[in-house]
Fold this sequence. Notes:
By secondary structure, the protein is mainly α. Helices cover about 45% and strands about 5% of the residues. The protein folds into 2 domains: about 1-70, lambda repressor-like DNA-binding domains (434 Repressor (Amino-terminal Domain), Orthogonal Bundle); about 80-400, no CATH class. It is built from 16 helices and 5 strands. The strands form 2 sheets. A 3-stranded mixed sheet has the order 2-4-3, with helices on both faces. The radius of gyration is 23 Å and the shape is elongated. It starts with 10 loop residues before the first helix and ends in a 26-residue tail after the last strand.
Amino acid sequence: MSRGGVQGFQCDRLSQMLAARRLTQAQLASLVGVSPATVSKWRAGAQAPEREALDRLADVVNVTPEWFTRPPAEKVSLPLFRSNASAHVAARAMLEARMEWAQDIALALTEFVDFPALNLPSRNFTDPEQITKEEIELAAAECRDLWRLGRSAVQDLALAIEGAGVVLVREETGIAQIEGLSAWSAVLGRPLVLLSADKDNGYRSRFDLAHELGHLILHRHIARPTDRERHKELEQQAHRFAGAFLLPAETFASEVRMPVTLDDLLLMKRRWGVSVGAILMRLRALKLLDDEGAQALFKRRSARWGAKSEPGDGDRAPERPRLLRRTIDLLVDENVMPLEAIPRHLGLASHDIEMLAGLPEGYFQGRGNVVQLARIRQSADAPASSASAPSTVLPFRDPRRS
């Protein structure tokens, strides 16, 4: 229990901040001008900083002093990272902290607006051994049906996922090895996905997003593995889901011309918005190519273009999240909250909010006109507004409608 200092200081906030800023206790102590032992006591909850020290602490890490007195929301579920290597421990902690900040932002915004209702297929697998290839194909098809996407190429996967009630964040993390992560938020009653924007490749970003969607649907009730082989199995299942969702068997297979050539695959890449490498994996999964044929094409692809890039990688811009950004736009447009009051209300630095909400740099110093998507929350007895007409991508809807 804290002794002395500012009342209500939340030691968990300090741990969260150290992770988000990738600072050690000793580094923070040096910046604030206190001893490492003092920071250790703050973090353990044995002592709270005095007002002057709290002001210095907040200034150093660029939050409001009051932010440290806000009890953090319940943690999101443990994310499943693409790489199971222990070398990325600090990087993982940073990304988990950033996701918790995204949860804080979304939670604060739900005081004023209604986000789209959660609309994901429900699966109750508790062991990856229960998940067959057929189950993955069915889950991907059901997801498309729920979102009214048909079986053609998905035009904007980010919009479809946000329309289904998922909170999506895409930001530069400085950690190119970790393409994305996803987790469930109990306080929001919906999942969050954080995608890395470090690789500016729209094709890979779409597949990464579909991969995380697979984790959310297939692995929600499966404990995060520590065993390498079990972890690999979950990753392979999410990969198969991404292929099945982005390249539905019945329509995709009908377009494949045999024998398959790399030039044909480049045309399919542009049509479906999926890399040649991912298309090859899907062809193998559908047994349109055997292992030997797929391996031969992978080798040809590597010899012709190299292992890390393909022609046309820059042709498709990565899809951008809209929900958090346009919700903040709506609050300002409807005079619910002045622009300059939003960072103070959230307690975070303007730059952090801009990064997590997909806002342009300098947004809180002024902005242009924008398109509104979210809806201002109505009183409990007010009638729900009409849902917009169906389109190829599920529109943002009033979540009170069934």
